Amino acid sequence: MANPLYDALFGAHAGKDTVFLHLPDGGTLTHGAFVAMAAQFAHVIADAGLEPGDRLAVQIEKSPQALAVYAACAQTGVIFLPLNTAYTASEVDYFLGNSGAKLMLCDGAMRPALAEIADRHGAALMVLNGDGTGGFAQRAALSPEVFETVDRTPGDMAAFLYTSGTTGRSKGAMLTQENLLSNAHVLAEAWRFTGDDVLLHALPIFHTHGLFVATNIALLSGAALIFLPKFDLDQVIARLPEATTMMGVPTFYTRLLEDARFDQALTRHMRLFVSGSAPLLSETHRAFEDRTGHRILERYGMTETNMNCSNPYEGDRRAGTVGMPLPGVEAKVCDAEGAELPRGEIGTLEVRGPNVFKGYWQMPEKTAEELRADGFFITGDLAKQGEDGYVTIVGRGKDLIISGGYNIYPKEVELALDDQPGVQESAVVGAPHPDFGESVVAVIVPEPGAQIDLDAVKAQVAEGLARFKQPRHYAVAEALPRNTMGKVQKNVLREEFKSVFVG
Ligand code: MLC
Ligand code: AMP
C-alpha cells in the first residue's frame, strides 16, 4: 500500500537526523523531527473528522509548522489549501465557501474576524500561530509521533491552489499527487539537486514557487532549506554564505543588485540562482552576471501546471527566454483554435504533460475554456519558440498584472472600485514599477455631477482587497477610451500611465 507523494517527500525521511530546516534564529530542525511533527498534526486533522478528499484551508505565517500542515495533509489524504496571509477576511470568506473546506487553520489574531465566516460555511476553525503555539499545536503535542499513512494513488488530489480569473472570481486549481511529484522529479534532475544542497528559501509557501518548486525539490533530494519568514534583504545577505542555491522572483534579484554588499565574493560559492513567476528583464540578467559572474537560470510556470519550461543547467541560459520545455512537458505556440504556428511566430502557449492540473474545482465551464479535450492547457501567455526550441514569453493574452510575483486580475479590482459611491465605472491596468516589475493603476470615472473622495475609496478598497492588489496610483477621468465595439482600450491607458512609477 502506498501514498506516492507522502512516501517520496516525507516518509522517506522518517527518523533521519539530517538537517531539513535552518531557522532564522540559527537553530535547526531535522528531517526526522519534521516528519514526527507532521504525524502529530495528522492525528489532530483525522480526530477533527476530516477524511481523504476533504479540504483543509490554511492562512498562517510561514513557519516549520505551516509546512508540516502540508505534510500532514499528504499523510491523511486531505487536500491542502494554502491561502495568502495578505488576504482579508472577505477574501477568505469566498475561498471557504467555494472550497467547502471542513477545517481552517488561522493565526490567533485573525480568529475574531474569521469565526463567524467559518461558522457560516460549516468549517471548524483552529489556531496555529507562526511561532508554533495555538490550540491546534496544543492538541498535536498530546498526539503520537507516528501516524498510519493513508493510501493514495497518483491521480488523487493533493492540493487546491486558488488563482484569480479574468472574471474576477478565483478558481481552485486541482492538483494531483502526480502533478506535484512528476514536476519535482523533473526539476530536481534538471537543476541537479542533491542531499548536499542548501536552498535559501525566502519565498512565501502559499504559492507554487515557494511551496512546490522550492520545497518539493528540496524534500525529494534530501536538501536543506534556509527557511526565512520573508524576503528581508539583510537576512538574505547574512545567510547567503550558508547556501548553495537560491530561488526567487525577479524583485529578489533587483533588490539584491541595489545593495553593494551583494558581490562576487558573497556569491562565489553558490552553484545556482533560479528566477521565475514574472519576467526577468534582460538587463537584470546581464547586471547580475556582471556583478557576480553567475547567469541566473530563468524558468516558466503557472499555478495550474507547475513548471513547464526551463533554461538549461548546462548550456546557454539565455536572457529574455524561459528556455525549453522540460522533459515530459509538451509546449506549442498556437492560434486561437489551438493549431500550432510555425516556429518564430507569436501565439498563445499551450502545454501538456503529467504536470498539468485536473481542472478548476466545481467550474466545469471554466475548465473546458482553458483545458482542451486532448489535454493541452491554454496558458493565456503569448510566446514564440525559436528553431532551437527556446521559448520566449512576449506578453499576456490575459488581462493580468504581476506585481512582485503576485498575480492581480484587474477585473477583481475594478469590481471593488465600481462598488464605491459616486463611481460610474473604472479601469485597472499595470504600469512598469522599478521594484515590483509592474504595479496597479486605477482610472475612475465619476457619476455625472459626483465628486470622488479618493481617500474614502482607498479606505473602502483596503477593507476588501489584500494590500498587494490595491492600486498605487489613482486617476480620475471623464470617460474611458473605447474602441468602436465599446470595449475599453486598456492599451491606451497602459501607454498613458506607463511612467507613473518610473518617473
Ligand atoms: C508586498 N506588498 C506588495 C507586494 N508584496 N505590493 C505589491 N506587490 C507585492 N508583491 C506590499 C506590502 O503589503 C507593503 O504595503 C508594501 O507592499 C511594501 O512592502 P515590502 O516590505 O516592500 O514588501 P515585501 O514584504 O518585501 O514583499 C515584496 C516581495 C513579496 C516581492 C518580497 O511580495 C514576495 O515575496 N513575492 C513573491 C511572490 C511569489 O512567491 N510568487 C510566486 C507565485 S507562483 P504597505 O502598504 O505596508 O507599504 C507563480 C508560478 C511560478 O507565479 O511560475 O512561479
Ligand atoms: P500564477 O497564476 O501565479 O501561477 O502565475 C503564472 C503566470 O506567471 C504565468 O502565466 C506567466 O504569465 C507568469 N510567469 C511565470 N514565470 C514567468 C517567467 N519566467 N517569465 C514571464 N512570465 C512568467
TrEMBL record:
Domain AMP-dependent synthetase/ligase: 17-361
UniProt KW Nuclease keyword: no
Enzyme Commission number, as recorded: 6.2.1.16
Keywords linked to the UniProt accession: Ligase
Any one GO MF annotation of this record: acetoacetate-CoA ligase activity
Xref: PROSITE patterns: AMP_BINDING
InterPro entries according to UniProt: AMP-bd_C, AMP-bd_C_sf, AMP-binding_CS, AMP-dep_synth/lig_dom, ANL_N_sf
NCBIfam families for this protein: PRK07514.1
Domain of life: Bacteria
GO biological process: fatty acid metabolic process
PANTHER family named among the record's database cross-references: ACYL-COA SYNTHETASE, ACYL-COA SYNTHETASE FAMILY MEMBER 3
AMP-binding enzyme C-terminal domain sequence ranges: 412-487
Family: Belongs to the ATP-dependent AMP-binding enzyme family.
Species the sequence originates in: Candidatus Rhodobacter oscarellae
Record carries keyword Ligase: yes
UniProt protein name: Acetoacetyl-CoA synthetase
Enzyme class, UniProt record, top EC level: ligase
